[in-house]
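Thread: quick sanity check before group meeting

JM: Hey all, I'm pulling together slides for Thursday and realized we never actually wrote out the predicted structure for the chain we discussed last week. Dropping the sequence here so it's in one place. If anyone has concerns about the input, flag it before I start.
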Amino acid sequence: MSDRIADERLPLAFAQQILRLQGRLAQSVAPTLSARGLTAAEFDVIAALWSVGSPHQLRPKQLTGKLLLTTGGLSNVLRRLDAAKLIVRLPDPADGRSHNVQLTPAGVELARAATTSATAALQRSLSDVPPQRSRPRSNSCRASTRPSRPPRPDLWPTGEARLCSARPCPALPCSARLGRRPATT
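JM (edit): ok, ran it. Output follows.
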């Protein structure tokens, strides 16, 4: 059999490679986050808030758009960050029913320090990839992830949700991996 991947299998092979890389990168960053008392989700939230610049503030809906967290997952993370005095929830002057999430000064400092050390860990992990190869791939990944949110397995047509027969699939976000049973007909 040829070393070339058949065109029809290319999307699956691409997804598997991305997931392996994600695992490798998550492992490289985990110790630096743990040393600062942060989970990956907490880091994602404070890094997203820090990245927008002063006053380091977003609405929860904006955060869910930037992160791979559900609204329920985000609420749990915000509760922990609030208890740790890393964020404050402020009334939204434009919408009295909503609020904004803002980093506290301690949150800004932790986000800066954690982002700096996480970036260094990622650079060490990717040191074998020359910039001339990683830059085009990074641009390609950014372009392919920008337009929409990941598909929700609970909304997939019944036939698609049952492709894995309830076995966790290492390459796709199937309903079995997300703890839900596939829809049946």
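AS: nice. The beta strands are 57-58, 87-92, 95-103. Residues 155-185 have pLDDT under 50 and may be disordered.
JM: adding both to the slides.
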